[in-house]
Amino acid sequence: MRRNVDNPWIAGPAVALLAWAIFLFRVTVPAQLVFDEVHYVRAARVLLTLSGPENIEHPLLGKELIAAGMLIFGDTPLGWRFFSTVAGAATIGGVFALTRLLTQRTPPALLAATLALLGFTVYVQARIAMLDTFMLAFLIAGIALIAASARSGSMASWAIGAAMLGCATACKWSAAPYVAAAAVAFLAMRRGRTDRWPGMRALPAIATLGAVSVGVYFLTFTPAFLYTNDALTPARLLAFQWEMYQRQTLVLPPHTYQAAWYTWPLMLRPIWYLYEPVDGVQRGILMIGNPAVMWGGLIAVAACLYRWIRTGSARLLAPAMLWALALGMFAVIPKSLGFYYYYYPAGVFLSVALAVAIDHWRAALGEWVEVYLLVAFALALYFLPVLSAEPLAHAGAFSRWTWFARWV
């Protein structure tokens, strides 16, 4: 039994399948569109008819996946959200794989996957038809494959990782900086070191990264060439990217749940995706992170950076830099409004940082790790009613979970 737990080829798929089962349970509740589902499900409906462009400010892949679920299960809550549950499970599996690559040990990989599952945000996003859910699943797969190629020197792993990054960008443009980050990491880590990406030459590797990621991105626009009205043409493909950019950078009116990027790590303004009577009962869905994971993860990032300065260990630097990139890019992205759910990738990377830090200091932490996990699990049970749209006692029940005035 112990051997099976330590075997990453058994433990990784097992934890992803367990997560998938959790995400699927009652995924059809509520049986109405929630939050931004109103935009993306509507766009998926249009895609199924190929009648014309819809929601053109974002690329197509995420909406294509929502449409695929609706094609299989119908225009129903299960159809809207089925592939979100798959993406959520893939995200948990990706967290496991990335942490296993960084630490070369299965227990910290299981810990990272567990913390990601207990961190609330993957659970909430895996049960709603939004583009961020698909973007992160592809993104973390791409990062894990790129990291695997650093050890093996496998050009196939590098190329498939590039394809995953292209798919992530084809869901949301906020994944695009990771393509550049992969190139920078390759060049920086190869300099003076022959044990990273052995046998891979710089020019072919960078060319492959760019060609594959960009090529896959553009391939996802294929359905747009088949529209009945205003079909895309090869001549318009690049110009259409400019149209998307113009729409994404529009100055929008203030929003109740807007929040500046530097407030996200402290969860100063989470989002109620839903809070209204549904099916005759009050229900709520709060997009928030587990305080033990989100706030504890900030300590882990600081600890990893401190220890990296002392030792130069790349495995300690990597999760901290992934978190910093996922957050810091929003300081320069020209969007007029920000929302807490933009922190979704960064929040998941905190699970990796926590597991890497705990593994590094495991001897000193001892039984405190179990205490910490119990706290995270207890908070998950406490918040579960407003993560899963369970029936609430009355319209004012939100006060039980809103610790601060800005959480309302």
Can you tell me about this structure?
The longest helix is centred in the first third of the chain and has 27 residues, at 77-103. This protein has a two-stranded antiparallel ribbon. With 408 residues, it is mainly alpha-helical. Helix 2 (8-24) packs antiparallel against helix 5, helix 6 (106-118) runs antiparallel to helix 15 (344-360) and helix 9 (155-169) packs parallel to helix 11 (202-219). Helix content is 61%, strand content 4%.
Summarize, please.
With 408 residues, the chain is mainly alpha-helical. It has helices spanning 2-6, 8-24, 37-49, 61-73, 77-103, 106-118, 121-125, 131-152, 155-169, 177-190, 202-219, 237-248, 291-311, 314-328, 344-360, 362-365, 368-383; strands at residues 271-278, 281-287.
Lay out the secondary structure.
Elements: H1 2-6, H2 8-24, H3 37-49, H4 61-73, H5 77-103, H6 106-118, H7 121-125, H8 131-152, H9 155-169, H10 177-190, H11 202-219, H12 237-248, E1 271-278, E2 281-287, H13 291-311, H14 314-328, H15 344-360, H16 362-365, H17 368-383
Antiparallel strand pairs: 1-2
Structural class: mainly alpha
Percentage of residues in strands: under 5%
Domains, number: 1
Number of helical stretches of at least 4 residues: 17
The largest sheet, given as strand count, sense and whether it forms a barrel, is: 2 strands, antiparallel
Shape: globular
Strand order of the largest sheet: 1-2
Helix content: 55-70%
Q: Which residue ranges are poorly predicted, with pLDDT under 50 across at least 5 consecutive positions?
A: none
From N to C, what is the helix and strand string? HHHHHHHHHHHHEEHHHHH
So what's the oligomer here? single chain
Q: Mean of residue pLDDT? A: 95
Number-wise, the strands total: 2
Could you tell me how far the N terminus lies from the C terminus, measured between alpha carbons in angstroms? 46 Å
Rg, Cα atoms, Å = 21 Å
